[in-house]
Amino acid sequence: MMNAPAHAVHAKTADAPVPHAHAPLIAWTPELSVGIEEIDSQHKTLVDLLNQLHVAIVERHGARDAAEILERLVDYTRIHFAVEEALMRMLDYPDYEAHKAEHEELVEQVYQLRHKVMVEGKPITGELLFFLKRWLTEHILASDQKYAPHLLSRGVRAQYAKPSWLQRLWARSSH
Ligand SMILES: [Fe+2]
Q1: What is the pLDDT of residues 122-168, one digit of tens each?
Q2: How many separate domains does the chain show?
Q3: CATH number of the domain that residue 53 is part of
């Protein structure tokens, strides 16, 4: 059941007074970019998974579809955080511990959410989608943006000239 009105889960709609059901939950904007291509592309994948979840709910694709997307979100989040943490550690980011603690809290939140939906059978409501939207965007805007200048100054791009860690981790996790 959709408890919240559709507009509650949409991105900014200032130029679109009547929100369309297919407007994405999160629109990628330049403010979300940390200026590190591979990290941005991982963040875009997370944005895409949340948008897919939104579509599955709005179009009532059924609980199974939504659960599968949620499962992918949990898996991809863990891999993405592992990549960020590895980079921060390798490049001596001074706020590493605090950032890692924040990741742990975010993972815990998404585990709890998965439990509610998949074990307790709770519906994914507009409110919950809005929670996920903030869960991701606030972390990128407030915390990931802080590590970007440090990682860039330590040559993060050269790290990524090597074969993609994410692709290897992701391929391994899906077997
Ligand atoms: Fe992060």
Answers
A1: 888 899 999 999 999 999 999 999 999 999 999 887 766 565 666 66
A2: 1
A3: 1.20.120.50
